[in-house]
Amino acid sequence: MKRTGLLVTVFLLVLLATVAPMSHGQEHDGSLGAKYCGNVGKRYGLFKDYNGNINNIINKYYYIKITGVIDMSTQDYIDYAIKTAERDNAGLIIMLNTPGGYLEAATNIVSEINRARIPVIAYVVDKWAESAGTLILVTSHVAAMQPGTIIGSMQPVLYDPQSGMYKPVNESKIINPIIKILCEHGATKGRNATALVGFVLRNYNYGAQEALKYNVIDVVANNTNDLIGKLEGSVVVLPSGVVVRLEAPVAIEELAPPPRDVVIHTLSDPILSGLLLSLGSLIIIFGIISGHLAYATIGALLLLLGLAGTGYSPNMVSIFLIVLGALLLAIEIHTPGFGIFGGVGIIMLVLGIVLLPTGGGFAINAGYANTILYILYSIGAAMGGLTAFVVYKLIQVRRRKPIVWTIEGNEGVAIDNIPPGGEGFIMIQGEYWKARSASDKPINRGDRVLVVRKEGPILIIKKKEEYDTR
């Protein structure tokens, strides 16, 4: 899928499809499903009565929360969660509350779920799991919904982030692969094929009880404990060949998203990414035209973050940020003061480190990779703290009133014997000065003297005790 500058065009599965949903009872005679999926029997998914061999028993569960738009960071988060659950032999509950998202990300997630060696339970909570959320729900090993939630509206649309306009897609080259994914990964788990095809072609929408009635989901549950309780004792047959029995949980834990996924998901908001791209481009242009190249670096930072939000490879953005950040710090070292180059350079380095790939992105042990990553986080935080301290001190200095140093009134020590009106040398603050005595009495070597005034290079002095008794 190609993305170019501001004119990024992506296929989204979103709620805002313009074709109105049809009534829920239409075409449930099976003709629509048979036409597109054929006679697909249930081979995978949830089985209440299973007489075959059991390969694994699951009594530990992780859960993750997917909210907002489904994007590439969502794919990374789910991939991380599946790998963690496989490592700990735990089931994974994906709690969905989403209006939809990117088609590419959603289909990649379907493939990851299909390869999983532990049961993946998709559970719609709070409000909805429309379009891309529905695709993930119906292709998971177990599908569940909370009462009051809705699913459906899977017709893809063409989205232009520059204009904010959506255009429904009806081309068979786009529609047919989505339907085939639903047939291969949804109907084979016992889902109603007609309903699955209707989600795409007719924009069907179902509530929880309707979805259960039409055999689109397996369970309606009030909360996570209710869900696990209703699944206890059931068997899940996975496409990977593993057969799992679900038992009462000894633990249910949440898996928080890695920092990288949090940043990318935040940047993926269409309004934010569009704003970053626009501001970044304008700041670069005006910085170059005005000759203030330091400000152009701020524009480069915003532009790179905007690209990451529009779907450009976060790995490449991470590399660009680290290289540019190091370059700007090198420039700052050779320029006086601590200015924009250094500040932007540190920000780029920290963000570049946060966006570094983890897990499969490293060719080394994941635990070792995480250790390196946390060390880099610490370095970035230390550099940021140092920057804040230096800036604070600079502000303090600039706010102080200027102090004008004068030699008059300073105290010194006579180096020579100086007669009244005569000249000799004295020492003030470690420096030798030529002085003329204004005292009525001779000044001996070692006497304390005070500077009365300065006449050219000559200091006019008096003995300290004489000056004090005035």
The gross shape turns out to be elongated
Q: What's the tally of helices?
A: 15
Strand content: 15-25%
CATH superfamily of the largest domain: 2-enoyl-CoA Hydratase, Chain A, domain 1
How many β-strand stretches?
Answer: 19
Tally of individual domains: 3
Q: Which regions contain 5 or more consecutive residues with pLDDT less than 50? A: 1-12, 14-27, 360-365
CATH topology of the largest domain: 2-enoyl-CoA Hydratase, Chain A, domain 1
Structural class: alpha/beta
Q: Give a quick account of the main beta sheet: strands, pairing sense, barrel closure.
A: 10 strands, mixed
Annotated CATH architecture of the largest domain: Alpha-Beta Complex
What is the overall pLDDT average? 83
| Spatial gap, N to C terminus | 92 Å
Quaternary organization: single chain
Query: Any idea of the CATH class of the largest domain?
Result: Alpha Beta
The portion of residues assigned to helices is 40-55%
The rounded Rg comes to 36 Å
